[in-house]
Write a sequence for this structure.
């Protein structure tokens, strides 16, 4: 009997070890998933801090001060507060659509991070689609906005949702030819920057949530962490579009300063990893430089009116980007 | 009057009283056809406190601390009109130094009011940053007020026959420093705002009021002057001592929101001009006149006799309003601020009818916003410059 028991125990311990190994494998699988998510989250916190600190600088205030050194932890504190707040639901709204919206907003934008190259061949998912995945995923956003506008049972939300849908449709169209065409880099860059600002619904174009008109647009009825998720989504969107601007127009991971050469590394593992790190660093530095511009823009300019915004999109940006595309294709034809 | 719509199912949106850009507790019921405004019905009264009725059982001195709650951003003007009424009713002479101090305070208050118009107006259009810049300057004005009166906003400084206290030592130099500094501030606003293309697109041709229309609606102040009518009560009525200074009434002829913006910005620099001249030329002498002239009762009482009437800074039962009526008005930053006053041989006014400029100017809002976009409501409402405290009273 005793022998049997020990044998059993031995077998049991074996199987436990086996299961432990399985768990370990699973955890190991989660690491590459959570590393970028963690990185992106930290990026968001940094952007929130930057936005508040830069806006404070623009407005001659002190800004964040108390939560952590220089108020770095303020965004975390705000997030924690929002987590503990009551989750209010509109009494006669469509609760399903209402609750689905924040997750759609965040997840759809998180997905587009997977196609951003941070360095040479350093992409999470090397799809052949590339930037078009971002554009197509960005088209999900208006559906979400319409959902929350409809589901909130609130007229401000409804108007905000409609505005957002109209806005993102009319700015995605000039965005796509900008990505396609190669000629006239400066014009393309300008059009892309304007369209991406409009896509992010940042201040000269923040009509869907224009506080003075629509209270908070489609976010009016949201509270607690659902409301917080909208902020997360908007900053995610800002980061992703500035990363795309960096990759598409500002040279990505190449150091764009002349006469400064990075030490060339041997193709060994250590050198490769170091070069990769420098690439990521340069990409991020450029992206944050661009973020600085868009943040200062937000705190400097007044807001446009809806009809002016649509006019700018359809009558100015679209012809320019289409003409640009035409030029590119004709160059291609002649060069053939 | 409603505008014909393209379809039947219009959206009715209730804006306010708790809406970020309703300047307090204004409520608008707006009928929308997509983004176009078909109809707009303002609903008032959420801040009604019965101020006119309260005035009927207070002496003027008792009532003075309360009047700064009419237009709580241009507080000196409400005090000025409250003391001007009884002064003119009782024919009380104000010493010259007091007149100068009053002009300085009024013009500082005008700047403060215009500043706190500019910030929210820009915020209504979507630019948040000017709000902080205007508070930078407005705080300095409030500091000056605090030094002279003891309070930053609700001063209780004007008295019948003068002001409560003389200017403290060194105040005039501080005020001159402020004038120099403020001119650079205005230049900064001009640089930031006036030629911004998005700003111009938002305000040019929005909320146009013609000259005749403005007169017919009874508009006053910058609303009227922006429509090409050169009507400034400081020039028209020659009250206080405005005639002794060299300044111009600001006016524009376009009548849109941009014109109103330009008029107000111009008025701020003109006010600085007036203040500088007043500070340079302020005479010595008493800052108050505590003796009231008599009309019917005890006309020939001896000075300091039992029957002699002093005005006094404290509640004085012996200062009574004679049985007459009159309408007094001043050029407040928002327009013509007036009081229709009926005395009844008692210390309390029998009737105290306030003519708030914001209330009269607000009447034109429904007509201005029709056929405009939803976002234009905020621009137009902002350019009218209302304070719900005086609209509802």
């Amino acid at each position: 009997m005793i022998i049997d028991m020990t044998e059993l125990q031995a077998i049991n311990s074996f199987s436990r070890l086996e299961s432990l190994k399985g768990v370990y494998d699973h955890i190991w699988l989660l690491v590459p998933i959570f590393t970028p998510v963690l990185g992106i989250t930290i990026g968001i916190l940094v952007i929130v801090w930057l936005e508040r600190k830069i806006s404070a600088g623009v407005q001659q205030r002190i800004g964040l001060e108390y939560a952590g050194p220089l108020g770095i932890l303020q965004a975390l504190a705000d997030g924690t507060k929002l987590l503990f707040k009551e989750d209010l639901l509109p009494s006669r709204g469509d609760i399903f659509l209402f609750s689905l919206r924040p997750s759609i907003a965040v997840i759809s934008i998180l997905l587009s991070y997977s196609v951003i190259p941070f360095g040479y061949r350093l992409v999470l998912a090397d799809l052949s689609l590339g930037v078009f995945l971002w554009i197509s995923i960005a088209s999900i956003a208006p559906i979400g906005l319409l959902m929350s506008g409809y589901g909130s049972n609130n007229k401000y939300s409804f108007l905000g949702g409609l505005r957002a849908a109209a806005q993102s449709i009319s700015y995605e169209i000039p965005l796509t030819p900008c990505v396609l065409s190669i000629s006239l880099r400066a014009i393309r860059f300008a059009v892309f920057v304007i369209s991406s600002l409009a896509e992010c619904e940042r201040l000269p174009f923040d009509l869907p949530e224009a506080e003075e008109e629509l209270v908070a647009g489609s976010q009016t009825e949201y509270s607690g962490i659902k409301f917080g998720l909208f902020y997360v989504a908007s900053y995610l969107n800002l980061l992703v579009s500035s990363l795309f601007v960096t990759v598409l127009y500002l040279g990505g991971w190449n150091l764009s300063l002349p006469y400064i050469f990075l030490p060339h590394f041997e193709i060994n593992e250590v050198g490769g990893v170091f070069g990769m790190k420098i690439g990521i660093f340069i990409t991020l530095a450029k992206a944050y430089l661009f973020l600085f511009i868009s943040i200062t823009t937000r705190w400097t300019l007044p807001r446009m009116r809806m009809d002016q915004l649509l006019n700018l999109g359809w009558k100015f940006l679209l012809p320019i980007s289409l003409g640009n595309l035409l030029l590119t294709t004709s160059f291609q034809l002649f060069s053939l | 009057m409603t505008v014909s719509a393209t379809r039947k199912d219009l959206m009715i949106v209730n804006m306010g009283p708790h809406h970020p850009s309703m300047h307090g507790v204004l409520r608008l019921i707006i009928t929308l056809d997509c983004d176009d405004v078909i109809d707009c019905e303002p609903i008032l009264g959420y801040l009604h406190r019965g101020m006119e009725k309260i005035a009927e059982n207070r002496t003027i001195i008792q009532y003075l601390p309360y009047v700064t709650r009419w237009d709580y951003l241009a507080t000196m003007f409400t005090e000025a009109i409250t003391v001007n009424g009884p002064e003119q009713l009782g024919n009380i002479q104000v010493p010259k130094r007091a007149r100068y101090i009053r002009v300085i305070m009024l013009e500082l208050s005008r700047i403060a009011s215009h500043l706190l118009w500019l910030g929210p107006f820009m915020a209504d259009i979507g630019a948040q940053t000017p709000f902080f810049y205007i508070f930078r300057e407005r705080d300095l004005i409030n500091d000056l007020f605090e030094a002279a009166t003891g309070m930053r906003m609700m001063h209780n400084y004007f008295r019948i026959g003068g002001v409560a206290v003389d200017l403290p030592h060194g105040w005039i130099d501080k005020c001159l420093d402020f004038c120099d500094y403020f001119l650079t501030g205005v230049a900064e606003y001009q640089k930031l705002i006036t030629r911004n293309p998005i700003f111009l697109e938002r305000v040019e041709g929005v909320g146009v009021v013609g000259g005749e229309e403005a007169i017919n609606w009874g508009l006053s102040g910058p609303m009227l002057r922006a429509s090409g009518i050169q009507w400034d009560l400081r020039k028209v009525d020659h009250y206080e001592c405005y005639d002794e200074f060299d300044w111009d009434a600001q006016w524009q002829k376009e009548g849109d929101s941009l014109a109103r913006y330009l008029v107000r910005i111009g008025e701020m620099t003109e006010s600085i001009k007036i203040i500088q001249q007043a500070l340079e030329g302020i005479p010595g002498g008493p800052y108050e006149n505590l003796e009231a002239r008599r009309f019917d009762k005890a006309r020939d009482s001896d000075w300091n006799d039992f029957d002699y009437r002093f005005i006094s800074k404290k509640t004085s039962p012996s200062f009574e309003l004679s049985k007459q009526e009159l309408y007094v008005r001043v050029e407040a930053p928002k327009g013509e601020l007036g009081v229709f006053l009926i005395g009844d041989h008692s210390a309390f006014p029998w009737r105290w009818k306030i003519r708030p400029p914001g209330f009269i100017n607000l009447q034109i809002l429904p007509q201005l916003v029709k056929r405009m976009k939803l976002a234009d409501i905020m621009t137009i409402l902002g350019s009218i410059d209302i304070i719900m405290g005086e609209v509802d009273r």
Q: What stands out?
A: Residues 2-58 of chain A form the longest helix (57 residues). The interface with chain B takes residues 55, 58-61, 155-156, 159, 203-204, 206-207, 210-213, 215, 299-308 of chain A (CB under 8 Å). DSSP finds eleven helices and no strands in chain A.
